[in-house]
Amino acid sequence: MSEAQGPAFRRAVIALNGGPTDSRIVRLVSEQARLTKAELIAVHVLEIDWTLPLDSDVSGATDEVQRVLDSAEGIAEQSKVRLEPVLLQARDVGAAIVDEAVERDADLLVVGLPYRKRFGGEFAIGRTIPYILQNAPCAVWVVREPISEEPR
Amino acid sequence: MIGGRRPLKGRKPADRRVRVDRPHSPYFRYTGTGQLVAKAAASRPLTPTGRLVRRIRGIVFGRPLSTEEEIGERLSKKKAMAIFSSDAISSSAYATEEILRVLVLAGAGALLLSIQVAIAIALLLAVVSVSYRQVCRAYPNGGGAYVVARTNLAPIFGLIAAAALLIDYVMTVAVSTAAAIAQIQSVIPSAYNLRIEIAFVSISLITIANLRGLRESGNIFAVPTYLFIGLALAIVAIGAFRIVSGTAIPIPPEPDAVPLGTSTIGILLLLKAFAGGSVALTGVEAIANGVPAFKPPEARNAANTMTAMAVLLGILFIGLTVFAVQFGLRPTLAGGPSIVALAAATAFGNGSVLFVTFAVSTALILFLAANTSFNAFPRLAAILAEDGYMPRQFSFRGDRLAYSWGIALLAAVAFALLAAFGGDTHALIPLYSVGVFVCFTLSQIGMVRHWLDERSAGWRWRMVVNAAGAVLTAVVLVVVVSEKFVDGAYLVVILVPSLVLMMLFINRQYSRASRELAVAPDLVVRAPHREHRVVVPIPGMTRAVVQAINVGRSVSDDIRAVYISDDPDSAARLRADFERQVPGVPLVVVESPYRALAGPLLAYLDVLDSAWPPDREAPITFVVVPEYVARHWWERILYNQASKRVRAVLLGRPHTVVIQVPYRREDPAMFEASPDDRDRGRPSQPQPTGAPRQR
User: Does A23 touch chain B (CB under 8 A)?
Assistant: First the structure.
């Protein structure tokens, strides 16, 4: 595959946050993965605060958590690509995503970035994506959602 | 649905994470809160036999398709033409012959009139196809004449159209298969003796292809359809060239040609020829029935396919008729070559590669004409089933999104008909084309009403076209019925009302059940306050009985076991064991000197009901039936026969709920006696559930 079509990869970890960027990045990566027959792993991390044990049944409390991964799996299937959904509970989302990518020996990590502004109008990137960009050993794609015309 | 959690270390001690198992993931997909979608694995059979059957089904019919894949199964115009038009196009292979068979009775001069008859039929085809173009656009959900007549006239007219169409589709399969076999006979005369076997094989193959789904059957059937169209057009072109160049010389008649008759040419003979040739119009309505099978924009694609089909059919029908007349082709006696075979021999040369290819493609398209019915019949049956006029199973789609029940029914009935008539086309044709003109007429009248009500742009000319079509097709219907009545069309006249009555009966049953099952919209369902009691009919002291009693105990404290026996000694032994081993549950022994089981049990329940205080609401009686789960399918015949009878008897009993408790041998340890219990004595011989001692 040429670089113009997109970078070649054999195993990609897609970080899902349950927002509208999820379907966009899964569709995008699935289309690429179909061409190279690459493996896809979708990771959704539930951040557990320090007041609860790390293995507490937080994910079982709502079907919505499962829907995030199931919907990603469905989108990948439409592109005839198999996607392994992984649900994690962790104290820090960024660290969990990077650790999962390291453990899976992924050569690409894909994250979606919602377009948000801080109070005062400055673009807010949050703390997870900078952490991933600084710590992930593999290539990282950051896909920012388009700027909506509606004021946010 | 959430299972275990697996702790994982991170690169730093504080970065520990937990991977959460998702046990639902292989079988279901969440689409919202409390909303799951089953995956293919959820329907995967669990037993080895089930898996084997599924594998065989996968090889024969293909992998199961999900509902989401339906859009991918839609037909392009080219494939739809092959599927929905093969019936109409193929009728050009025998419609000319039907005209000539009638006119030959009046001698050689009368055969010349076949061109005028063919032109008159082609004009009717033009009117009908324009009308059905409008049906495609006005009713994009399909259903054709049934939906038009039901919506614009009255439901009963819709049912008449539907019944006529259903009969006609069965006829199409039978007639076209018989005609295809006749075509094979033209090349291989000995095939006549194997006609029923050939019919069975061809109907079976078309059935399998259709059960594989719409798109695949389109792929399979497109090549022979277009091959026939191409070669038939070539015959027409060669004929036209020879006629124009003045080289069209009449060929000598075949030795087995039908002898020229001496009847006078009268209006009745012409009408009979017209009625015979009108089989050319059968299948025209199939596209209007199957509009949803087209790729979007469905209505426009269906309407354009309809026009293309009508133009092709008109050219082939008139072209072959002119060819037959100009070259002096005469129909032959049963078993001889057909008119199209003679035309191909004249155009391409007898025995030439093109002749043999055309003979093969004609046989194939005639077989495939049946395929049109295999698409239209199940769709119509599905619409009728959704409206409650046919059993609901007909609206269910199979593994490959095909209406499997409709396909199977059509195959069975068509083959039975073909076998009953000995596989003879001419014996079947009188039954044919009556139904199709009934629904042509009804749909056109319905469309006149539709335009009158709607009055959209261009409604006047559209209404005029439909009104003219209605009058013409009504006239043809009268002619067809009167001409073919004695020959067998009376059967259709009997069958249509019978089918309509059957559909009305089914609808009444569904309506009644629906009324009985309806929950008032303003009803808020509260928790019940009714008292419960449990009766456990037992066949002896077995693990299955113990399990059933435990289930009964969880339902209510008011529980009793009932043992019905014709042997007082065994009853006494059982009582001793039961009272010792199941304390707290009273055992009622009912002696049955006449060896009946169900009757005394029912009578005992009635007595219990009678003994209930009249000032209190009658309780719900839970009859808990122990059952032994056999290891193998063939073992099932040995067990649970008595419990099956008990269930059957109790099914309609008021205030009674039957609970089956299967014993699966999954936890035999819980039934082992503890050392303390063992000292109290040896239990009597257990008797498996449903043992033949009890009746």
Answer: no
